[in-house]
Amino acid sequence: MDMSALSAAVEDGTIDTVIVATPDMQGRLVGKRLTARHFLESCEAGVGTCSVVLTWGQDHALDPDYALSGWANGYPDMVVVPDMATLARYAWFERTAFVMGNAVRPDESAIDVAPRTALARMLERLAGHGLRARFASELEFFLYDETPRSAHDKGFVNLTGKHATLHPETLMRTSEDEHFLGPLRNHLEAAGVPVEMVKAEYSPGQVEINLHHADAMKAADSHMLLKAAAKEIALQQGMIATFMAKPDHDLGGSSCHVHLSLQDESGQSAFAAGPDGRGASETMTRFLGGLTHHIRDIFLFFAPTTNSYRRMQPGTFAPDSVTWGEDNRTVAFRMVGAGGARRIENRIPGADVNPYLAYAAMLAAGLRGIEEGLEPVGAALGGNAYHADAPALPRTLDEATEAFAGSELIRDCFGAEFHDHYANYGRQSILAARAAVTDYERRMLFLDI
């Protein structure tokens, strides 16, 4: 949809609302619903909102120690400027359009910590090497037969899942859920988000949906719209869709495997090599070298919550060490595909990631590998990576935050403001979780101690 099409739709009454939104630190869409008339009159100026949306905690707490926004500077405004290339129908709501925006200061200067800005900066850096990135998110989530109110009234425990039995990969299970999955696929397609397929994942009530690969910013925007559609269509049907990495310790975790390929200036794969296109080019090898050498620097953006680390257990298809290999689902970085589809699959992230930050982090580390000519850590693994003698991945948010806070890579690639901002995000998230009394503690101690 372009502006002329929007104007026509507003004129004939098929669109009366325009959503302007932008991602926050946690990968949630924050935004406002504008009357379509007002949007057409004022869209170029952008939409003002409080800059707290880029500093608040996971529970929307007013966390301290952010330079961008806080009590010290009075929580100033920022402006979300629509990226008109993203204008599309928000098809699961009637008469509604959507546009993603970039967060800037009122003087139109960039906000370095804004997730879309961080990814855009890394794409500029990548272009300086004559390269272009394409990404695809492979997202998993759980469906629950609950409403936000019923889940709250239960204290978010003993929740009723959409299903109680295992039927992974079966047609029967997706047929049972087609009342939800069908509208999800079709509405996303109508919104300009190309869906490849949907399937029943391993655990009861768990779904996987794969999006078609796209240029990096488009892929990240599509990731966000998929989450929004899944959650909102579920609510319309009296359910909850959750993208927690590990909603229950008795269930499997939900991942977001990130697929990345690079193209050169002619549009050819920069990763493929050999007569069949299944070999690894020097660019692919060096990029993988950067990912494996600098994984601790960027790990915070693959596992951004305390819950993220509950998912990464041995034998669960979630990696626990710095490993890589060809078509091996037990490693952290899986090399797969041929020719134009030759790519690296990052199997570390959970479904709770912010795609802009995860993509940008992969590019930062991979580019460093290209610039420094790094070889991948260890040898390619063809067997069970859980038995490999390989460096361990961070086990806790504390460990990941400490590595991030001390990272020269992050400071060099993203700047001091960004580095300090997200190090504080990690610290504040740890403090919030540390102060919480958990259901586990009550079960263990309430009666017996």
TrEMBL record:
UniProt xrefs under SUPFAM superfamilies: Glutamine synthetase, N-terminal domain, Glutamine synthetase/guanido kinase
GO molecular function: glutamine synthetase activity
Keyword check for Protease: no
Gene3D superfamilies per record: Glutamine synthetase, N-terminal domain, Glutamine synthetase/guanido kinase, catalytic domain
GO biological process: glutamine biosynthetic process
Organism domain of life: Bacteria
UniProt keyword list: Ligase
Cofactor(s) needed by this chain: Mg(2+)
Pfam families from the UniProt entry: Gln-synt_C
Ligase in keyword set: yes
Limits of the GS catalytic domain: 115-449
Record-linked InterPro entries: Gln_synt_N_sf, Gln_synth/guanido_kin_cat_dom, Gln_synth_cat_dom
Family: Belongs to the glutamine synthetase family.
PANTHER family: GAMMA-GLUTAMYLPUTRESCINE SYNTHETASE, TYPE-1 GLUTAMINE SYNTHETASE 2
Name recorded for this polypeptide: Glutamine synthetase
Source organism of this protein record: Roseovarius spongiae
Lineage: Bacteria, Pseudomonadati, Pseudomonadota, Alphaproteobacteria, Rhodobacterales
